[in-house]
């Protein structure tokens, strides 16, 4: 077990190191010199250029530059935004809350709605099952921006239940403003989780150990919960974790569609305005989050399966 | 007659791919308190389906006719909590413990689950009981085993765990579905001995399913022989093995290898075993029987009381007379 | 894309070999119609997709303009039809590049085995850490927005997924007797791979390419939706969903809905067809000895 965790930790570090290198290298392989890339094609006064050269150690060789950049990044210094002339870290910090709230909200929806519908379909063969199967097959294919537009059209413009744009102020208003974005982000993932829940719970229900439990007079609800769902939790949590991780990148889509001031939307506008330091900073943060969530989920799902632990130990 | 288990004219039909598929046809038998009855037959003869009918664990779409009574209570009338209570009181010892015990729950969870639900025992009390019974079935270090997972135990140990879980229900009737078939030959004997001993100690009735005629004879008071979803012969085990009445039983008895007799080649029954849905008109065995007559193809023979049991063959008396000459 | 690929692979375990089934045929038909429209559509449309006439902004359908107009008074049908071409060509390039590179890497790794194989596997493992859309944004920031950057970025992002799938199949194939027989006959590794091994993987490759086409379509549309892919005024379904958003807020959802609907329809079709193509080998039929409900 310990050996496994150490192995995973090493893999995690290597992955993060390589990702950070990819993010950093972008600056150097861009056409033109790094200074021009950082300036994003703007003509800057000499004193600004001096600031950039110092901040990014542009007079140092490539690998030194990378090491220094990484050292700064680890300490929370992600450079300077060329458009806003502010520290990238501060800009990220002020927007991260929205994105985190959005992803947590969407995760809750994915787990609750996805598992509920999957379980419903698994336990009610026939009409209910077919409806869930067909509905999820379509929803799985709906990209988040189409979901966003559809939700805005129906629930904001048509019914007027939720606001179409903006973040809102205060906790409850914030929740209200995040509801449609969270559903748009969660839709395809929830459908995916529902499908996996359905197939894996159904597979478990047909297994011999479930028959044993039924033959011992255990109530059906308990059999489903303690045996079918518990055993199906291994594939379900693996998949749910992967979908949550993928939402980290996709959050940009709904933030943009709903005019939310989050990290993803900022990444897009920074890419459009060629504010390279911001693109680098946010990319690094998002990739780190993506890798961390993936690793945590992988380790967590492994922990759920007692068979695995022994396999590693012996 | 009213024993602990009475099966009357049980017919079970499964929903087949294109047409309904019979798996049991007019099966009747009974088990008295404390009595062990063996149910012997080749694969597909309907032995396991009989057990599944008793605990009502049939595939969806299965149709069941006839009735099954446990201590006089008709199982067909039971629903919900009453059915679960009845199931809890006649535990099944399944063939493959590896598949039949949840791999991601600990042995302790498996053993105590029913106790905690049906008897509302505390976890500690249930674990105490479980450890005691594990001890009885010959599992060493019972306390430690409760914390282990199925994959950490050998097949033999796991089947003992299965037997322990059955005994924990404090049943009057055990249903054992080929409990040793999935085990190594050496462990088979040990597990069998433990099960037999504990059953006799507690005076439990048992329905014991096996394809091994001799094994059934060794541990059961009576033995029933099944073929193509029907009962061919039910008699006291010893005499059934020594003097089989039904030609099918006789064929089974000679087909088994023996240490005493030296043979160049094992006798086999011509043809392959039929399942209930393939059974011909008349006697189900008529396609393979060496003594078949026209009458065997016309009418299905009833189970008739004869000597110390019952047999379903119209020519029993003639054949017996011949073999005595 | 990460998550859904697993399910789709799982959902592929359906009984029945051979034919595509009615659903598969429908999906193939939808795709064929879309391809034909993308090829000849722009010639069919009577109007110029980029000619704007603000007098007709959000105008309802009129004769000759059966779908009406967008916010700038451009003909929606003409834009949908021209958009079909970019919306299908983009994913085609992504899949072609990604499949070629991924298959080449996978086959070389599987053929050589040993340290090369384990190194390739670990590199792929690390590459998994980069979500395709994020890589596309990074590339757009470096090289400037546009379809080309997006196609390259996504093709690179898909390589690990494709290579991992193909590698395991190629390893299995490599150890089959016929390959060893060819080696004994003295054929070169390159010839064996190109003439025998890869052709035997073709059913798998076709199924995967179809599935990845669907993912690529969504991901490219997302990049275009951001404004980092296809650049306005060129018509593209992702761009149309984005530019139609202001219309949605004002109660004219036609542009966004039509473009979004086209994307969803085609993605569903590609998913269904991909699943059907990967069907048939693994048949999973559990023995259903279970009656629902302890109360049954």
Kindly describe this structure.
Chain C: Keywords: Cell membrane, Membrane, Transmembrane, Transmembrane helix, Transport. Chain C: Belongs to the binding-protein-dependent transport system permease family. Chain C: It comes from Sinosporangium siamense. The complex is a heterotrimer of chains A (314), B (325) and C (296). Chain A has a domain at 89-270: MetI-like fold (Orthogonal Bundle), CATH 1.10.3720.10. Helices cover 80% and strands 0% of the residues of chain A. Chain A has 13 helices and no strands. Chain B is an alpha/beta fold and 325 residues long. Among the domains of chain B are: 101-169, no CATH class; 245-323, no CATH class. The two termini of chain B are 36 Å apart. Chain C is mainly α and 296 residues long. Chain C has a single domain, classed as MetI-like fold (Orthogonal Bundle). Chain C is built from eleven helices and no strands. In chain C, helix 3 (76-112) runs antiparallel to helix 8 (189-226) and helix 6 runs antiparallel to helix 8. The longest helix of chain C is centred in the C-terminal third of the chain and has 38 residues, at 189-226. Chain C is elongated, with a radius of gyration of 23 Å. Mean pLDDT of chain C is 75; it is low at 1-18 and 280-296. Classes of the chains: A mainly alpha (314), B alpha/beta (325), C mainly alpha (296). Chains A and C meet through helix 1, helix 6, helix 7, helix 8 and helix 9 of A and helix 1, helix 5, helix 8, helix 9 and helix 10 of C.
